[in-house]
Fold these 3 entries.
Entry 1:
Amino acid sequence: MKSLPPQTRQQVLASLATIHRSMQQIQQALGQEPANALLQELLIDTYQDEMRVLTAVQEEGTGGGES
């Protein structure tokens, strides 16, 4: 993250913050409806979104991203 331009870093942090808020909301909803398959799938998708963002940041930091 340190190697990213400041504007890009802010965008990444904002994206991660949004993803984390979504995870918390989904987990709260699952607390009320633990058997809800749609919520379970949504949580998995959200974790995958987080991994995609982190992977893209890592690839950019190691020069693997396209410019």
Entry 2:
Amino acid sequence: MIGSAAFLLVYAGVNAGHLRVLKDTGANAMIVWMPQLTCLSMFAILSVYTWQHQPAANAALVLIAAASFAAEWTYRRWTGRTIRTKTLPR
């Protein structure tokens, strides 16, 4: 279940990124919003189900997510790397 939750979060992140550049890509907003809302809804349903049947799995998901963000923050501080944004050609 943790793998499914992680996949849903990653896919939601990709969709959120696409929403940020929606005008640049020329995509239909509804086509991008529908999977985003579906993905977040499925994540919410999975979280409730997991909480009811395996509460430790939800705790593990939160801890793994926090650890990954902490590791990324530490790595970027240590190496001095930053996220650069690129402008898409029009």
Entry 3:
Amino acid sequence: MKADISFKNINKLAIPALIAGIAEPILSITDTAIVGNIDINPIENLAAVGIVGAFISMLIWIFGQTRSAISSIISQYVGANKLDEVKNLPAQAIAIVVITSLLVLGATYPFSKQIFQFYNASDVILNYCVDYYKIRIFGFPFALFTFAVFGAFRGLQNTFYPMIIAVLGVLLNIILDIILVYGITDIIPAMHIKGAAYASVIAQVFMATIAAVLLIKKTTISLKITFPFNKEIRKLIVMILNLFIRTIALNIALYLGTAYATGYGKEYIAAYTIGLNLWFLGAFMIDGYASAGNILSGKLVGAKKYNLLLKLSTKLLKYGVFAGFILAILGAIFYDSIGRIFIKNKAVLDIFYSSFWIVLAMQPLCAIAFIFDGMFKGLGEMKYLRNLLLITTTFVFVPSLLILDKFGYKLHAIWFTFALWIIARGFPLIIKFRRKFSKLAQKN
């Protein structure tokens, strides 16, 4: 196996992964920007999109961990030149995750009102949440299917096809958002927030269809389910369960941030929604290098090339932190104009501007956490990731938010807490990685 960790090869994987990774946040940002400029109740519409977006993101992250698990196993078998042994694994994994998603849809749909009351939504905002969710949730199984197929492509060291799928999906979503939210005079009535939900669902169905076609036509992996189960299915399920528990801890943090912001008032949740979507966008852009780490680390550990693995981590860290600083600088340059893209309300913008600098300052720190997070997934170290997030959420995020909220810092409390949480997640991963693979490199 040829192990190439050159700048060119890393970016050959990272840049398409970056573009593919921002598909979901751009879908949410598109909804946010277009819905925030509706003439009727723009603040309430924006708040509803933010609350529902946070919940759906939680579901996708919890149940979409199949992508990382599939990628880890496939890439390790590619590194060991034994791909034939796991060719039927992706189809089995995809079937499991799609069936699970249908169960989640059936379980949450009837209780959508109660779910968003739990997020402190009420009155007009609650009604908008229910309307938006009852449409958008039907895109959930298709989103998980696409995530799982992306995992197979990543394991095969291919981030180009996921990029193509994501770009086409985003473009379709933007076009449909404009048409369905605002309408076309005498042709299509304005559907407002429901139109944004329909646009997202159609885009997700489209992406899933293209993903399936490309996987079947362009790879040796089939979507036909065969039995018996692959020998790695047990390992895959254990990985998914560990990531499942880990992602629940992650989403407890996201839930608390959304619930507290909603409790401060509709202007605060609207401002928080803008900041959160921009944070997700920055995170997924940096995550391109995390994806490269995920793909290459699995391949290198499969080939037992530990020296190259250490060099890869150093390079990715430099590239990721540099990208984080660039994002922070760009955000600072366009600080005032960014907020006005989403909403024109002065009260919301004032709250947003007062705390957005914290989101920007977090970007280089996020790079550290996300890059090593991606590498640990590629290595199959899901148990350690699970334990670390449980500890940091319990002993860093929750106490910090409670204390800072007590002092009345409001959105500043939420964003400072996220910053501390990111630091607590990132640096232990560096220490653990260096200790383990420095020893293995010396033995090797």
